[in-house]
Amino acid sequence: MAFFQFEREQKINATKAEVWDFISSPKNLKEITPTYMGFDITSNNVNEKMYEGMLISYEVKPLLNIKTKWVTEITHIKEGHFFIDEQRMGPYNMWHHQHFIEEIPNGILMKDIVSYIPPFGFLGAIANQLIIKSKLEQIFAFRKVALEEKYGVYNQ
Asked: How far apart are the first and last CA of the chain?
């Protein structure tokens, strides 16, 4: 069973309150997810603020336009600083996503650490090299552009 980590950082031209308000609301996930992923939140709590223990269900089409159900739980929150979501049901054997924000001069540094274990053992490790890692890079590249469109390009 192969274990992988994917890390990304982005500087955002906004206040901590603005960024926290945006990322801590599940309804905004669709705005920062590529449309080709077919991402839809299916749980009824989409308009609520995240809280520890919150379960959020989605449908997403990560590969070959095949619809997949995914459920994550918000396991930890430090208001205005970080939150962690973990997969409870979905395509991975394990998914643990840490979202951090911190103030920097003229903006916010957003840091994501995704730890995951693909399904199918050694075949999952091969799939990571061929598909999964590049999909994560595409998703986070899309998110970077979406956040720059929302808040402007970071200026030092």
From this structure: 42
